């Protein structure tokens, strides 16, 4: 009798401000990971546990259109999946963790800017003394919307960072909101593909340019940080503050602190930490055994 052995694959586990990821090194594009396998890897009881999975593949070894478009400009592609197995365009914390992985495990010179291809185009990463900085591109402010969590409802700013966000400046202390955050209710017409919801309060006076946020991520539930979310918060709050370009903001998240600048050129520079915590081999489950993520609830407008 032939017994088929389970498929084992190498992994690296890392986080940026406690937004954690399983990285699957796949330079030559040999790995096919199903949504069920991603969900099982991310499950915190039966898997490794993570907010998302990053398949690390060369742009010339995958036919993802974003990777194909980036060939010649970026060697590496961030194939990002949320904890429920869904794809996302971008992950601001994940791209720093991926950059650290490449600088320590691949032929990447950390003294040079590193272009990384994502489904939201190429992001350039630089390694500095106080953290890793990513040029996150230009945020688009797309007007007002509304989000609710439980009984509470707020006006929110619709911001696109390649992925969709709703940023609400709430009047209450963030620690008075339920933990974990229940799935927010949002307008389905505004966000046909779901939304990441950031709830924000100020730390100090508006002129301190310092805020705190909690986030409920599309496809992952409440997480300890969201890099694209922090950039969306910067765009919404700096606009409300009428802050001139070049002003820097500090965004506190449950898992740490991110530093942001909306530059004269219109792009957002985000600086924060990245940590690699473990590496080894993992068996990719044949079927999803994970709990489903509680998704935000879409309501027709
Ligand atoms: N945590 C990430 C964002 C991950 C993707 C997001 N959940 C989505 O579906 O758009 C970040 O640091 O930006």
Automatic annotation (TrEMBL):
<feature type="binding site">
    <location>
        <position position="196"/>
    </location>
    <ligand>
        <name>substrate</name>
    </ligand>
</feature>
<dbReference type="GO" id="GO:0008837">
    <property type="term" value="F:diaminopimelate epimerase activity"/>
</dbReference>
<keyword id="KW-0028">Amino-acid biosynthesis</keyword>
<feature type="active site">
    <location>
        <position position="91"/>
    </location>
</feature>
<feature type="binding site">
    <location>
        <begin position="92"/>
        <end position="93"/>
    </location>
    <ligand>
        <name>substrate</name>
    </ligand>
</feature>
<dbReference type="GO" id="GO:0005829">
    <property type="term" value="C:cytosol"/>
</dbReference>
<dbReference type="InterPro" id="IPR001653">
    <property type="entry name" value="DAP_epimerase_DapF"/>
</dbReference>
<feature type="site" description="Could be important to modulate the pK values of the two catalytic cysteine residues">
    <location>
        <position position="217"/>
    </location>
</feature>
<dbReference type="InterPro" id="IPR018510">
    <property type="entry name" value="DAP_epimerase_AS"/>
</dbReference>
<protein>
    <recommendedName>
        <fullName>Diaminopimelate epimerase</fullName>
        <ecNumber>5.1.1.7</ecNumber>
    </recommendedName>
</protein>
<keyword id="KW-0963">Cytoplasm</keyword>
<feature type="active site" description="Proton donor">
    <location>
        <position position="91"/>
    </location>
</feature>
<dbReference type="GO" id="GO:0009089">
    <property type="term" value="P:lysine biosynthetic process via diaminopimelate"/>
</dbReference>
<feature type="binding site">
    <location>
        <begin position="217"/>
        <end position="218"/>
    </location>
    <ligand>
        <name>substrate</name>
    </ligand>
</feature>
<feature type="binding site">
    <location>
        <begin position="227"/>
        <end position="228"/>
    </location>
    <ligand>
        <name>substrate</name>
    </ligand>
</feature>
<dbReference type="Pfam" id="PF01678">
    <property type="entry name" value="DAP_epimerase"/>
</dbReference>
<feature type="binding site">
    <location>
        <position position="163"/>
    </location>
    <ligand>
        <name>substrate</name>
    </ligand>
</feature>
<comment type="function">
    <text>Catalyzes the stereoinversion of LL-2,6-diaminopimelate (L,L-DAP) to meso-diaminopimelate (meso-DAP), a precursor of L-lysine and an essential component of the bacterial peptidoglycan.</text>
</comment>
<comment type="similarity">
    <text>Belongs to the diaminopimelate epimerase family.</text>
</comment>
<comment type="pathway">
    <text>Amino-acid biosynthesis; L-lysine biosynthesis via DAP pathway; DL-2,6-diaminopimelate from LL-2,6-diaminopimelate: step 1/1.</text>
</comment>
<feature type="active site" description="Proton acceptor">
    <location>
        <position position="226"/>
    </location>
</feature>
<keyword id="KW-0413">Isomerase</keyword>
<comment type="subunit">
    <text>Homodimer.</text>
</comment>
<feature type="site" description="Could be important to modulate the pK values of the two catalytic cysteine residues">
    <location>
        <position position="165"/>
    </location>
</feature>
<feature type="binding site">
    <location>
        <position position="19"/>
    </location>
    <ligand>
        <name>substrate</name>
    </ligand>
</feature>
<feature type="binding site">
    <location>
        <position position="82"/>
    </location>
    <ligand>
        <name>substrate</name>
    </ligand>
</feature>
<keyword id="KW-0457">Lysine biosynthesis</keyword>
